[in-house]
Amino acid sequence: MTLDKRAEGVRRLAAHVADHLKADLTLRLWDGSEVPLGPSPRGDVALAIRDPAALTRLVRKPRLSTLIEAMAQGDVAIEGGTLLDLAERAEHGRRGLLKRLDKMTIAKALLPFAFGPGKKQGSHAFSGPGDAAKYGEGRDDKALMHFHYDLSNAFYALFLCPEMVYTCAYYPTPETTLAEAQVAKLDIVCRKLRLQPGERFLDIGCGWGGLVCHAARNYGVKAHGVTLAEEQYAYAVEKVKRLGLEDRVTIELTDFRTLKAEPFDKVASVGMYEAVGLDNREGYFARIRELLRPRGAYLHHAIARPMKKDEKTFRKKRPEFEALTRYIFPGGELDHLGAEHDALERNGFEIHDVEALREHYARTCRAWTERLFANREAAIKEVGAAKTDIWITYMAGCALAFERGTVGIFQTLATKRARGPSGLPLTRVDLYR
Questions:
Q1: Most exposed residue of 86, 101, 126, 425, measured as fewest CB within 10 angstroms of its CB?
Q2: Which Gene3D superfamilies does UniProt cross-reference here (predicted)?
């Protein structure tokens, strides 16, 4: 069977899909032909299958990782937009689509690809032991962090704000810009911790130094940041020096679990817990408790998934999660809010306040996606086309997950339990000035 006949079969299938999908999209095939996936698509955004070998690999191995590798190699692409555009333009017809399609039509179109040539597929996934769950039992957190964070500071600068903050922003108003929202987030963290001049403040997973520098400059604390990412460390050290904060801010390239220091007055973990792994949950909170003085405050900022009917069901890994840990965050896992709070209380913390920020992270991820897509050519020069396209798809997928509510994010304020008053204000009035 020739390639043209294969393309003809795919065109028939696409026309059948279009009857049900009714999307403002176009399908572009390797032979140059185009099929509208709705009654009147504008044609500016298209799903392109540039090599029939990609369909062969998908038919033989129908997994999300196969599709990701095909996109990384450029055999499948979203032209003129991102996954956000595909989702928006196919929103009305995508629900239950597979059930509405004729299975015989699908089989006739795809069966020839089961016997076709499929060129060898490469791999852009993490190659180390990412499934080693236990800290101290084969898990190499430095290697896991290196895969994600040590791409290139210049790459991250293409989509992050000037403060290089790589966590959920905080939008006081719908009109707030990404840069303004990230400064607002740094400030709300400091205000929730009620930082005071002269206090010793620890930021676990300090990234590029945004929070420790903000806290020292605006709240007069003595701030210490720790990170396992070498490029982040180099950037943060240079930033501290550039801002003249050497007497108030220190940065250390180390695992916080091995940190040797006197107890801190306040501790923050912003977007770091997701990299810990659920089997390390108890040790994580126990170590934070050791690093705090009695009634010291801890701000826990972490993405969470909704709880399922039981823990076993919750821990079952969905295909999109497995892809995320293979290509973006090896070793990472998302907890549920109840487990985090149970662990906090088991390890001697009193919980005072919880705030959901899901819509804030949806906005943040959309902004990152749009910025990286706009700077795609510059990103390719930094990390290559494959890594760039994987990251654009990853951030767009995160934006959709937060928008649809399949994941959430919460800030929890707790103190190291002790007898007597908590030391916190009676109300939240001071937070929202």
A1: 425
A2: Vaccinia Virus protein VP39 (3.40.50.150)
